[in-house]
Amino acid sequence: MNKKISALVLAFGLVQMSGHVAAEPMQSWLTPLNKMCFSHNGNIYRGVAAPGELKIIYGPYTAKCANTYHKFRLGLVLVNVQQLKNGVWVDRATKDISPAAQYGSGTFRVVIDNTKNQTPIPYSGGTFSVPL
Q1: Same domain, yes or no: 25 and 38
Q2: What is the pLDDT of residues 59-91, one digit of tens each?
């Protein structure tokens, strides 16, 4: 008896859903590919920021999605996330070990600012996940 009731409830639910989906225009529930947000994941490889150097460790990359997180996981090194605005790189996050935030859309890069130091800064690398 329980199997028959379950089958009836399931069938009723599917009929309701199919009527709703069929009544909706195709564009309202099917997002065009050029408007979808994709995530790009990968590795940041080890290196050294020389004395006086602004070392770009990832990027530049362009994010089209405004509401998706940019995430960077690094070793014990402080990095800045910068965004290109009117031809100038502007800090969005500074001196952070693992920045993760919704920076919005635009062109970004991740740097180690060693411009004021006389010693090299080695970094062991890490991972990233950014919207495209």
Answers
A1: no
A2: 999 998 888 888 998 888 999 999 999 999 999
Burial of 26 per CB tally in 10 Å (0-12, 13-18, 19+): exposed
- Whether 128 contacts 44, CB under 8 Å: yes
Domain range holding 38?
Answer: 33-131
The CB density around residue 70, as the number of other CB atoms within 10 Å, is 24
- Residue 34's contacts (CB-CB under 8 Å, 6 or more residues apart) are none
**Count of structural domains within the chain:** 2
The two structure tokens encoding residue 88: 């100038």
- Both tokens of 48, joined, read 């050294």
Report the predicted TM-score, pTM, of the whole model to 2 decimal places: 0.71
How distant, in Å, are the alpha carbons of 48, 85, 94, 100, 103 from that of 88? 24, 5, 16, 22, 16
My answer on whether 63 and 5 are in the same domain is no
Domain at 117, CATH number: 2.60.120
